[in-house]
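Repro:
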Amino acid sequence: MIDKRLRVVLAEDSVILRDGMVELLGARGCEVVATAGTAPELLAAVAEHRPDVAVVDIRMPPTHTDEGIRAAVEIRATEPGTGILVFSQHVETAWASRLLAGGAAGTGYLLKERVARTSEFMDALHRVADGGTALDPEVVTRLMRGGRRSRVDTLTPREHTVLELMAQGHSNRSIAASLVVSERAVEKHVAAVFTKFDLPATDTDNRRVKAVLTYLAEQGR
């Protein structure tokens, strides 16, 4: 049905998922010209190979917050001939709005858990490469809500749980024990909360307190 052989750059920091997608795309007639595990690798690969489309995850090293979609916005500005298909578990409305600011042509945004069939993903990939648009309805709904979403609403379920435990006075070590995860994992979630709440590090770093105060204020407590 679709005979165009697409040249694809794939940005995904999970090695297992990345390898699986390379096999899938190859079996469906695409040529994966490069893969990337970080945003700088993605930018370099697109600049070198000029693919038809770049498939981009939002959260990539080192902070696992929004490096991927930041790179996607940069690619839209520097390589307008390359389609962008964001493929993620998360909706980042602010960066999605910037990604679409110059027009939706050649842009897609799909949520991993809502793609039920491989054919849906491949159809979206080809549509974006051909200059069309492929937006998950949930992404559209979030964008339409725009600024009415609170900062707490931008958190993932796990980030929300971590912030709630912070508000209860738990340390990172205590949170790790409660959630049965590593302390390093908790640190990543806390860093993501700081980023989404726009709380940069300062000399008198009290971001933890400010994050909790923001949480309590927006929860109406």
